[in-house]
Amino acid sequence: MNTYKENYGNDNDITCSSSRAVPAILLPVRGRSGKVLQFCSRWHIAERGQIPKEEAERKRAVYAFLGTCTQDQIYDLFDSSAFNTIVKDYVKLALKNTETDEETSEKIMQELRWLFDTKSSKEVLEQC
What's this model's pTM, rounded to 2 decimal places? Predict the structure, then answer.
């Protein structure tokens, strides 16, 4: 049995025991109140039936691939525009949740589209 423990000095300390090798990717396990009770690997959660094993394997494969990428390759993945729609939808939801007026929301979305078309992710990170 492998155990991974990390102390963050708050209620979200990580402790995970598993029969598999200690994972690099951990997920929060929440109680009914929504409070984080512990963090465990996707495999550990799948073993307990909290997520399907197929989903755990799919996500493990993605994280394993990302673990082989350099930072520049991750920038290239983001710049491929594969994530643009997802990012736009997150921004739209944030604008909606904060009750931003329609005119301001449209200006922000236009700026976001312009940035996606004219700036690389590395340039944006350097400017922020």
Answer: 0.58
